[in-house]
Amino acid sequence: MQGSSQNKRSNWSAIVKFGLKGLVAFVLAFGLSIPVGGGVAVATFLGLPLPGSELPEEPRVFISEPSTVLDANGNEIALFRDFDETVEIKPEDIPQHLKDAFVSIEDRRFWEHSGVDLEGIARAARENVSAGYVKEGGSTITQQYIKNAYLNNERSFERKIDEALLAVELEKELSKEEILFNYMNISFFGSGAYGVGAASEIYFGKHVSEINVSEAATLAGLVKAPTAFSPHSNPEDADERRRLVINAMLEEGYITEAEAADATAAELKRFSDGDFSLPATFVFSRPSKGSSEFPFFSDWIEQTLVEDLGPDAVYRGGLTIRTTLDPELQEAARQAADERLENTEHPVDLSIVSIEPDTGFVRAILGGRDYEVSQVNLGLGGSSGFQPGSTFKPLVLATAFEQGIGPEVVYDAPGSWPVPGCIGDECSIGNFGGNGFGEITLREAMHSSVNTVFAQLVVDVTIGETVDLSQKLGLSRVSDDVAYGPSFALGAAEASPLEMAAAYGTFANSGVYQEPTAILTVTDRDENVIVDNRLRQGTRVISAATADNITDVLAGVIDGGTGARANIGRPAAGKTGTAQAFRAAWFVGYTPQLATAVWMGHSDGLRSLENINGVSNVTGGSHPATAWREFNLAAHEDLEVIEFPEPAEIISLDFVEPEFDEDGEPIELPTQRVTKRVVREFTEIGAQQAKSSLARNCGDRDCVEREVALPSLPASVPPTTVQPAAGQNDAANNQRSSINQERDNG
Prior knowledge:
Layout: H1 2-30, H2 36-46, E1 67-70, E2 76-80, H3 96-106, H4 118-131, H5 141-149, H6 157-173, H7 176-186, H8 196-204, H9 213-222, H10 235-251, H11 257-265, E3 267-270, E4 280-283, H12 295-309, H13 311-316, E5 320-323, H14 327-341, E6 348-355, E7 362-366, H15 393-402, E8 410-413, E9 416-418, E10 428-430, E11 438-441, H16 442-447, H17 451-461, H18 463-472, H19 497-508, E12 512-513, E13 519-523, E14 529-532, E15 539-540, H20 544-560, E16 573-578, E17 584-590, E18 595-602, E19 610-612, E20 615-617, H21 623-635, E21 650-655, E22 678-683, H22 684-694, E23 696-697, E24 704-705, E25 708-709
Parallel strand pairs: 1-5, 3-4
Antiparallel strand pairs: 1-2, 5-13, 6-7, 6-18, 8-11, 9-10, 12-15, 13-14, 16-17, 17-18, 19-20, 21-22, 21-25, 23-24
Helix pairs in contact: 1-4, 3-9, 3-10, 5-6, 5-7, 9-10, 10-11, 14-21, 15-17, 15-18, 15-20, 17-18
C-alpha cells in the first residue's frame, strides 16, 4: 500500500506540474489578462502544498575560486575574484528608498503577489508582442532570488516552472522583507560586487545605510545589466538608467515630485573626470583586482568574459585565462606615450593599440595615460568612438580597387570641390590650407592626403559600397541608417584605435580580416577548454590584389608623404589623420608583423590640440607618427626584416554576358570570344582570383557558366582620367555645416 501511495503522490506531482506548465504557457503565448475571480482562484490553488516543490534546506553553495589571467608568456597579470572588502550588512542597514528603488524597477507588484505575478506575466507578454521583441520580463523578485540562490542560469521551460513553484513555497516560509533583503544581498552589481553592501562601497565609497535616492536608483538600475549600465565604463547609459528608476519611484508614489526633481538633477559623474560641479552623484574608481601593471587590458578581458560566460564563472569559477598580451610591447607603448605626453596634463591623452595581422591577437593596448585618473579605455574608443580623419581614406581607396579603379587613375584636385546636389553657402570640401594640386593620380593624392580627390572618389564608388566594406573591416560604429555625405571619405564616422588597427591589419594580411582578440584560451578548473582562439581562419573581405596594392600606396606615405616621421628603416605602410579643427590626430600603420594605431586627443571631449610640446597644431604627421615610430622601433628590435608581397601590375579583365537559346539554355561560346561590355582593372593575382567568380552569373535564372578571357599583362598601364560622377547625394545638405571645415595635412 505504501508503494501505491508514493506512486499516487508522484503522479499527483506530475499532473500539477503539467497543469501549471500549460497555464503559464497559455498566459505567455496570448498575454491574457486574468479576470479577478479567476486570479483569486489561481492564487488559492498556488497556495496549496504542491508536491515536488519543496525548498532545499539551504540555498545553493557557491564554490568561489578566483580566475587567473596570464600574459602571452604565461606570467600572472591579474586575478578576477570577489572583493575581499565585501561588507556584511543587516536588514536594518537598508534604507527605505533603496528598497523602493528595487521594487519600482524590478517588481512593482512585489508587495501584492504571492511569488508569481500572473498579472505581470500577462502585461509583459502584451508588451513583448506589441514591441515585436522581448521588451519586458515577467519574473518577480522572489523568482529571481530563487534562481540566484537555489537554481542556475539554464534557459529552459522546466527551470522556469521550478522557479515559479519554489517562489510560491518561499513566500510561505519567509516574509517579503526577508526575501527582498536576501535578493539585494546576493545580486551581482558589476565591478566584482555581489550584494548592495559591496556595491555601495565600490561605487560610492560609503556604507549602504548612507546612500541617497540618486545613488539608490543607480544601484537598483545595475542589476538588469551590470556591464551595460556600469557607472565606471558606460556612465552615460548608467545615468539614463538612473533617471528611469527615479521616474518609476515617482510613478509608484514612493517619492514626491520635489524629491524626484532633486535626485534627477544630481547627474552621474565619475570623480576621476575632475568635474566637481554640483548637484552630482559621484562615482569613485574601483580598486584593482590584482593588475596594477596592465589595468586597461585586464578590464577589457574582464568585461568580455563577464558578457560571454557570466559573472559567476569569471569571479568564482577558477578559470585560467591565457591572453595575447606581450608585456615588452605593452611597456614599449607606455614609453612611447609618456615621451609624447611629457609636459602635458590630463585630459590630453594618447592611446596605442598593436595587433598581429595574421592572427588578430592584441599584443599591446594602452587605454590612456593614467588608469587612476580615468578608467575609460581609449583604445576601445571610449563610449562613442573617435573620428579617424584621413586614416579612413585607404578604406575608400580599397573600395575603388575592388571596383577596378587603379592607383594610377587621374583626378582633378582643386583646392575646393563643390558637393553635387548641395544648396547653400557651405557646400564645398577643401584641402588643408586651400591648396590645389592640378591633376594627380590616386596614389599621389594618398601621399599628400588630398581631401578633394577622395571626396570625389567616394561619390564615384558610392558611399553605400564604402560603408559596406568599412563594416566588413570591423568598423562597428559605421551604420547603414546614417545618411553620410562625401565627408565620409575624410573620416566622418567614428571608430576606435583597436578597430583601425584591425582594418589596416587586413591590408597587411593580404585581404583576410581577423577580428581582434585579447584572449587566447580559457580553461575551467577541470582543465576543459571553453574558449579557444588559437586557430582562427579569418574572413577574406578584399582580394589579395587590392590589399597588396593598398600596401604599396601606403608605403609611399611613409617614404615621402605626410607620414615621413613614422619611418623605421624597414618595410612599413601607413596613413596620417587629423580630425576637424585639430581635435584629434592619428597615425595608423603596419609592417608584415604588426599593425598599430596611435590616437591623440582630449579624453574628456572635443577640443583642439594646440601648443603640445612644441607643435602649434597637432596633426597625424607630428606626435602620433613619432609615437608610432618609437613604439615600432622597440617592437621590431629582435624581429626579422620581412618584405611586403610585391603587388602585381594592373591589368584589364574582360568578360562577356551569357547568351541563351529559345529554351533558356546557355549558348556555348568559343573560348577566345570576348565582348568588351565590362572592363575592370585587377592586378594579376586579383584577376586570377576574380576569374572564377566572374565566370558565374546569378540573376533571375539559375547560375550558368560565363566565358571569361584573361589577357596577358600589358607592358604598362597609362593613366586614365576619370570625370567625377555628378549624381545626387541624399545627405549633401546635411553636410553643409561641416564639410567646408574639413582639413587634413596628414
